[in-house]
């Protein structure tokens, strides 16, 4: 069986997230009253910051890289390189034009040029890797380490560190959406008879106990670990994957804390429950090294069910709300959409993946 490339779904997901970040907060749509492409020939903006330049340049680099690899794997040959740059630049032109309809966003020819340049850099990096044999080596590495059908798991595992960048109330506790979903539904259905249909929590809610918090930390790490175990080929490769996943998860959590509170607080989230949870996850990961693939997927579903139930029954603290305000204002507004939805949706996408994997293994027996 020829493995399917993960580059195309990753490029489409990255493009969707770029569109979301570029058009956020999606309020105040109005007709601009002038051609929407006038910004292309306008003078360069007088006011800009180094952060904006870097964000626009770097933001489209991964998109150009993924598009180039996806087109190359789809059989476009040498046309993959210019087509990838053209596709990314067209996307940038489209979203910059749409910003004319949003009062809180300002289209800029500088942003468009930087986005196109960033995409071109990403494509050049992909071209260099292909010329040096890096893409061929990755294909061989994937064939040696992962099952041929390891497609959805690789996509989700690649997105997991980025999902951790958005602040969470419990370390590695992705998917705590009920408070915001409940509040959003209440605002949407206010002054309508349908408001009574919203299952509002009548009983008082209590914070997670230290033991429950440690369990959520452990399950937050075990979810991607078991997902990977289901497609990694051998025991010793699973052990390497265990170490790499812990290193990547710790790095993403530290980066999230550093971006939110400052570099001096990168490890402030490590407390007693977090240490206990990480220790439990590591021990459970060692114990699961010999689990069959199907049992890994079953355990993945069970862990997701427990962690999502615990997290969404717990209240969100005021301290956590303050950390969200830091992200949702100022310089992090461009990263808001890129990480928020990943942090909310990732566990539910993992649940869909687990259900499909269990169903597929049941049919194959």
Core attributes:
365 residues, mainly alpha, globular
Topology:
Elements: H1 7-23, H2 50-59, H3 61-73, H4 80-98, H5 109-131, H6 134-145, H7 152-163, H8 178-188, H9 210-229, H10 235-261, H11 272-287, H12 293-313, H13 318-327, H14 333-364
Helix pairs in contact: 1-3, 1-4, 1-14, 2-5, 3-4, 3-5, 4-5, 7-14, 9-10, 9-11, 9-12, 12-14
What does this protein structure show overall?
The chain is an all-alpha fold and 365 residues long. It is built from 14 helices and no strands.
**Regions with pLDDT < 50 over 5+ consecutive residues?**
330-334
**Secondary-structure element pattern, one letter each:** HHHHHHHHHHHHHH
How many individual β-strands?
Answer: 0
Structural class: mainly alpha
Count the DSSP helices: 14
Describe the main β-sheet briefly.
none
What is the beta-strand fraction?
under 5%
What value does the Rg take, in angstroms?
A: 22 Å
Instruction: Determine the N-to-C terminus distance.
Output: 18 Å
Helix content: 55-70%
**Global geometry:** globular
Mean pLDDT: 82
